[in-house]
Known about the structure:
The protein is α/β, with parallel strands linked by helices and 305 residues long. The protein has one domain (10-303): 3-Layer(aba) Sandwich (Rossmann fold). It is 36% helix and 12% strand. The protein contains 12 helices and 8 strands. An 8-stranded mixed β-sheet has the order 3-4-2-5-1-6-7-8, sandwiched between helices. Strand 6 (150-155), helix 7 (161-176) and strand 7 form a beta-alpha-beta unit. Helix 1 (23-36) packs across helix 11 (255-268) and helix 5 (114-122) crosses helix 6. The protein starts with 9 loop residues before the first strand and ends in an 18-residue tail after the last helix. The site of magnesium ion (MG) has 4 residues, from helix 1.
Amino acid sequence: MEADYNIPLRVVALMNQKGGVGKTTTAVNLAAAAATLGLRTLLVDMDPQAHATLHLGVDPDALEHSVYSVLLDPDADPRQALATVEDNLSLLPAETDLAAAESELTSVPERHHRLHRVLQRLAPDFDLVLIDCPPSLGLLTLNALAAAREVLIPMQAHFLALQGVSKLLETVQLMTGSINPALRVRGVVLCMHENQTTHAQEVVADLDAFFEQQQDASLPWSGAKVFRPHIRRNIKLAESPSFGQSVFAYAPDAAGAKDYRDLAETIFATPPATTSTGTPPTGPEAEHAPVVHVRTTESAEHTAP
Ligand code: ADP
Ligand code: MG
């Protein structure tokens, strides 16, 4: 039996089933910020759209090895697929074939735990792993949630935000009941934030109040919060992907760089969520473990955020 990686390696999945909410922007720039804090950081691009890969200037169509090849070939050395993009920052890139991996994974053994195995092999080289998830709940996202200890939810503060959060918490609870009991939600990152609007302020107040009421230690999101600072809407964040750079390389003095730097200090200067459970179960039992069904709010069922 391979040794499990353990704290101090932190593995954080950025998840939201909705697209366009700021997942990739947050994954790339939080990873780049963590790297500047001195953490040996790995960004894993699990999205077949390869946006994080492109954002960091790596061409997904010119790769010999990628997250795709290492997920499907357990004997492949994942180090050969890594790209070093900045000091302390490595990328496990996606290639567009990753979409095919999703269907190929359905028929392999331990299909939920492929990324977990890959990260176990890379653990000695890193302090922090951030995983950019696709906007869906297929096997690629499940692999991310099986490999992670922590979940961050990037989202925007608008109508139905609370219902969207409830759905995502429900998904995490399903994971803790089956594939990964150690998984914990750390909190929400508000992206493209417009603090001056009354509507956004009301949504933030609702989200804050929601998490304050959810402190039951048995919940996988106890202690979760809406992180500060919120990430302001900032044009430099939208421009930097076309230059293949993080905002720190492209516009280090921009508001977007300041927000992500401050957020990285907030999140990564604090110890990770502690868990009473140990290693996520692996092997055939885990594949067939019962799934716990939960409702986090009465309204979750009626909304499609
Ligand atoms: P997701 O990965 O959830 O689909 P992205 O991170 O790709 O979302 O963001 C969607 C779009 O919004 C992208 O074009 C991105 O550049 C832009 N964007 C994200 N965050 C900001 C921000 N704070 N300010 C301005 N534009 C942003
Ligand atoms: Mg994305």
